[in-house]
Amino acid sequence: TYVVTENCIRCKYMDCVEVCPVDCFYMGETMLVIAPDECIDCGVCEPECPAEAIKPDTEPGLEGWLALNAKYAALWPNVSEKSDPPPDAADWDGAPGKLQAAFG
Ligand code: SF4
Ligand code: F3S
């Protein structure tokens, strides 16, 4: 599966949802997540994210992100249509400590 990671937080560009063939993105207030049990591993979303926040879970060190994606995909609503990113998205792109700020 692919997972959405920290740099999505407060950037939320949403280009990813437009290309996913199985609509497996779910949207929270500050970020999106992928439902691991629905993702078919096609990989098309990864290069579409301007924040480079989407990664294959075969990369090392993503266990925590995989768990977060699974947890919130079960709680947040499905999203398949792009909406506008936050007006200050560019300011947050690459900012450190976004996970702490968003989830405490
Ligand atoms: Fe959707 Fe493919 Fe990305 Fe999985 S890898 S979330 S199926 S676009
Ligand atoms: Fe987030 Fe990138 Fe999608 S910033 S909303 S994973 S395009």
In short:
GO terms for molecular function: 3 iron, 4 sulfur cluster binding; 4 iron, 4 sulfur cluster binding; electron transfer activity; metal ion binding. By secondary structure, the chain is of the alpha+beta class.
Distance between the termini: 26 Å
- Radius of gyration from the alpha-carbon trace, in angstroms: 12 Å
User: How many E-type strands?
Assistant: 4
Assign the CATH architecture. Answer: 2-Layer Sandwich
Bound molecules: iron/sulfur cluster, FE3-S4 cluster
Helical content stands at 25-40%
Name the overall outline. Answer: globular
The H/E string reads: EHEEEHHH
Strand order of the main beta sheet, please?
Answer: 1-4
| Structural category | alpha+beta
Unreliable stretches: none
Strand content: 5-15%
Question: What is the CATH topology descriptor?
Answer: Alpha-Beta Plaits
Q: How many individual helices?
A: 4
The CATH top-level class label: Alpha Beta
Tell me, rounded to a whole number, the average pLDDT. Answer: 97
Provide the number of structural domains.
Answer: 1
Main beta sheet: strand number and arrangement? 2 strands, antiparallel
GO molecular function, one term: metal ion binding
Organism: Hansschlegelia zhihuaiae
InterPro entries: 4Fe4S_Fe-S-bd, 4Fe4S_Fe_S_CS, 7Fe_ferredoxin, Fd_C, FdxA, RnfB_subfamily
Function: Ferredoxins are iron-sulfur proteins that transfer electrons in a wide variety of metabolic reactions.
